[in-house]
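Two proteins, back to back. First:
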Amino acid sequence: MTIIASKNLNLIAGLSLVITACIPRGENLSQIAADGPQKIHAHLFAGANAQLQLMFSTPTTATKAWMCLGATSPRSCSATNAGAQPLNLAVSATEKTHAYFHNPNPVSPAVDLTFTVVATDKGGTNVASQTYKFQTPKPGLSTDLTPPLNSPMPRPIAGQDIMYDYPGTFSRVSPTAIIVRLWVQQGTLKSRRQLQFSGTLVSLRNSTYTAPITATVNVDANGIIDFPITNLTPETPYRIDKILISDSGDAISKVSLKFPYYGVTGGSTALATARKKITAQAFAEGYDWNFKNYDRRKGYIDNAPGGWCDQFWVWGVHEALKVRWPQDYGPNYMERNKTWLRGTDLQAVMNQEPIHGDLLYSTDEGNTHSFMALSYDVATSKLYSIEGNFNNQVMHNVRKVSPRWRWGHLNPSMVR
């Protein structure tokens, strides 16, 4: 976790207060987009009782705020709308407290949110305060990530006017952007050099946070559309729904794409880059299987006759992690690295670090099944996954978390 702002204040009567504004998992203040909630931690120590107050100087009734006693098991919570009456909470001098706020749709419109945390002693005297400003920008469009030169063309898909080119995004890693790369391979839009792209961006960490994406995009001589969506949260999988490609000058020429487009942001560590590589490759496989366009020469189907769910995970991670392909079996690999957690730990860990690329091993209903984690959705308390040998194919899934799952959580020592 990266501390964004911190101030240690010496107060009267031996009461000290540390007010820390921070964002889970190290996001930058300018990158709070389809994610949240955001947190303000207020820690009080020693000497006397105090009153902690959270006040918003930027009114926005869409933003909810609340404070709770306790660091790990919040209790005695109170809530308010930003811009309404100040939020007050009586705090023991030795009690750690958390204050939270969130905007139900923080990316549309963008909001600059200013708030002040005030501490008073039990007599009501103001003894400390600190003001913070958070910016919640709308995901932006830019050309910062240059498309690769001489990138190989994707495998054609029969009958599809426009298809996704995931392999053209594999080597391009940004902590705040995903690359959208499409191929106009045939149809009425093939000869156009500029088109309109529209869709709805969804964060897989919290599916209630969505943002409309509308862009005028260029089409190169090979029919490739390539552009980034920026100002996103690091190390987070995203999905774009309801994609429509059209020509603004021709109301008839438009193509609605059947399947969502998936992307994932990177981070600043080798493990973050490995997670991005693993997940992007899995997205590509899932897309090809939608059209039975997969390449059987990759081998993960034939190496485990009768059940290849685990081999899909091992194949998908072996270039990024120290996994032996095709000899390794995922659960045994995790056992060697002593990284097993319980399925019920997903939410707690997801608050601190990502899980995309992790291995889940299920024994529900007497059957064993291995699959790749994408994200825990705090809005639904369910897990997004991508799975091999699910209905005899690679496909996306949404699962209710089971306490019987064993969860292999990736760590830096696994990275090649």
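And the second protein:
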Amino acid sequence: MTFDEQLRITLLDKGLLAAILALAVFALNWLLEKRKARNELLKAISLQRVDAYKKLWELLEAVKPSDKAEIPKAEKKRLAVALTDWYYKDGGGLFLSHAAAGQCFAARRLLKAHAASADIRVGFSKLRSQLKYDCGIQSRREIKRPHKHNEPPNLGFQYR
């Protein structure tokens, strides 16, 4: 192989490497800008999202895990309509994460199917946990840990 051929192969090799590197830098920059734009959007709507979540949180108060009484059919129907109105008429569904929307639909399905009250409480509890996760209040690990309702709080000292 002559010197000219080796030089051409070397230049072609270096040029191809430079082109691949430039493409990788472009792709990485594009991904970073896309993520930055998404984060800016989430920041811009964060106050509206909190307001929407607060309204949903108020609706969820009707079904507490600590309650043991049967939920009347009329209340199930009222809650199903209220969730639907919050989601569509009030525009709350625009602010739900994908996971929270799934939990919201699941809770509404339970209400419409007149499921057992215990199942509805579990569905509402899962939705509340997802809302807390979305707001940054709980981690994934904390969400999976069951709450112990009706137990005295552990304040660092023993009850006597």
